[in-house]
Specification:
- The complex is a heterodimer of chains A (about 325) and B (about 170).
- Chain A is α/β, with parallel strands linked by helices.
- In chain A, about 30% of the residues lie in helices and about 15% in strands.
- In chain A, helix 2 links the parallel strand 3 and strand 4.
- In chain A, helix 4 packs across helix 9 and helix 6 packs antiparallel against helix 9.
- The relative contact order of chain A is 0.10.
- In chain B, about 30% of the residues lie in helices and about 20% in strands.
- Chain B is built from five helices and eight strands.
- A six-stranded mixed sheet of chain B has the order 4-5-1-6-7-8, sandwiched between helices.
- Classes of the chains: A alpha/beta (about 325), B alpha/beta (about 170).
- Chains A and B meet through strand 10, helix 7 and helix 10 of A and strand 8 and helix 5 of B.
């Protein structure tokens, strides 16, 4: 099902969230095409009804069978519209509202099995397996995870005048400053990146060096609402990611422990680790970009790694106390 | 099976940051056996541990976790089996600026497993923040060669949060 959504007089932020919402809805089999209103017919119009241009669009849309979504303002009557949302509503709210309006089931994005080859294909109808929509393939982290010419390679990564070196061969990210590192980490889920191969990573004295794995995981988790569902099915980790420099990422640690011992997909991993699906999906994007994930689809399940007999976990009060003391909550051992 | 005493050990060569890391997570100033370096300072390091470090971390019911730091000098190696016996595991700290880092990593992995084949370990590599040439890849290769997977993290030994992350990884290995 294709939905033509146009927007008029909305902020850039709202436009970006609308586009992200469209990506989220692709996972539910809805292909939502987002574009600026141009006076032509559409299925859904998102409009700021208090703007003059928005009112013009609104008046035209009301003559047609168009579902109208208005940005919330004081005094606005919600009854006159199919939905009303705040200007700063996140993508997930937009996706839920649109799904309700269009009669599609609204749920947390669930991974659909897909082959890597489908990553560049347009979204499919609900009866077909869903790959990663083309729009998502343009996001920095997604490109790094999906493109075999980028994944695991040494790259110069640039966006909006800033750059970092993704030295995958060393497991490091190198930047001119901590500030550059932080800014680009915050933009990992956005499009607009350029990646170019680096023949040799310079060992200059200047700059900062940090764990590439932590850079990806930190950036992915911060943008978990923006990332599409991780497309691959059953996966496993090949190595421990370097998460030392990201001590807040306790859930990622728990996920790593599980993924090293057994393969799983997003839903299975969320269930066994008690980590929410969005976070699991975000971590998998990061692990894939770091070239630490191995797919297990169609392969015999490897035997789970059994810890040495002397170290087998016996759930005791002592282990629970240790887990609490060191921020693992109830014993995760 | 309840553990009679709960013990955690930090190991690693001289200058890796063991004393610093133990101080970072201890509830009180650790008992330390530091003496000035005979041959003068090694960069920022002006003292060395001449026996072992000892500290406690209190758990929420008042039970102590005993934290020991093994001295890095080779002539103290006789002490290692005694200290490591009965420990939850060993956190091996390595200095990222060390030229023979991979060899040192292999030495500690095999050495600890010689004491106890089933000993749990995690590896923390310090002083990598201003070292663009550092690579974690050789360490991952050594770990694969030496047997069971072991977490290896780059950390700042002065950071309580980052040292705690090492402890978490060790607990999750259990």
């Amino acid at each position: 099902m294709k939905v033509d959504l146009k927007f008029a007089a909305v902020s850039r932020q709202s436009e970006e969230q609308l586009r992200l919402a469209a990506d989220l809805m692709a996972a539910q089999g809805l292909r939502v095409v987002v574009s600026p209103w141009d006076g032509t017919r559409c299925d859904v119009l998102v409009v700021d009804a208090q703007d003059t241009y928005g009112q013009h669009a609104l008046n035209l849309a009301r003559r047609r069978p168009v579902k109208i979504v208005a940005l919330a303002h004081a005094g606005l009557s919600a009854d006159a519209y199919a939905a009303v949302l705040a200007e700063d509503a996140p993508a997930s709210d937009w996706a839920r509202a649109l799904a309700r309006m269009l009669g599609a089931p609204s749920s947390v994005p669930v991974v659909q099995p897909a082959s890597e080859a489908e990553a560049e294909a347009p979204a499919q109808t609900p009866t077909e397996s869903v790959g990663v929509p083309t729009a998502d393939a343009s996001r920095g982290l997604c490109r790094l995870a999906l493109d075999p010419d980028l994944r695991g390679k040494d790259l110069l990564a640039q966006r909006e005048g800033l750059s970092v070196v993704l030295a995958s061969s060393r497991g490091r990210v190198v930047a001119d400053s901590e500030a550059d590192l932080a800014r680009l980490r915050a933009q990992l889920a956005l499009p607009g990146w350029t990646f170019s191969p680096v023949a040799a990573v310079a060992d200059s004295a200047a700059g900062v060096s940090a764990s590439l794995d932590a850079f990806y995981v930190d950036g992915a988790l911060a943008a978990r609402d923006q990332l599409p569902p991780f497309p691959h099915g059953t996966v496993r980790l090949s190595d421990w990611p370097d998460l030392g420099g990201a001590p807040a990422l306790v859930d990622a640690l728990k996920l790593v422990r599980t993924l090293l011992r057994q393969a799983g997909d997003v839903n299975e991993l969320a269930a066994s680790t008690q980590v929410d699906g969005l976070s699991v999906s975000a971590c998998l994007w990061a692990f894939s970009a770091a070239d630490l994930l191995r797919r297990e689809d169609g392969l015999p399940q490897a035997a789970a790694v059994v810890p040495p007999a002397a170290a087998l976990a016996i759930r005791t009060q002592t282990m629970d106390k240790l887990a609490r003391r060191f921020g693992l909550g109830a014993s995760s051992t | 099976m309840e553990l009679e005493s709960i013990k955690l050990v930090f190991g690693g060569p001289v200058g890796a940051g063991k004393s610093t890391a133990i101080r970072a997570i201890a509830d009180a100033e650790p008992i330390s056996t530091e003496m000035p370096l005979i041959d003068g300072p090694m960069g920022d390091k002006t003292t060395t541990t001449v026996a072992l470090d000892f500290a406690t971390v209190m758990l929420d019911d008042g039970a102590p976790l005993f934290v020991y730091g093994l001295p890095g000098q080779a002539h103290f190696e006789f002490m290692y089996p005694i200290v490591v016996e009965g420990a939850l595991g060993v956190i091996v700290l390595l200095n990222g600026t060390q030229p023979d880092l991979a060899a040192e990593c292999e030495r500690w992995l095999t050495g600890m497993r010689r004491i106890n084949e089933a000993i749990l370990m995690v590896i923390g590599v310090t002083q990598t923040e201003t070292l663009p040439s550092f690579s974690i890849t050789p360490l991952r290769e050594v770990i694969k060669r030496c047997g069971a997977p072991v977490p290896v993290f780059t950390i700042d030994a002065r950071s309580k949060e980052e040292v705690t992350q090492l402890v978490r990884a060790l607990l999750l290995e259990m």
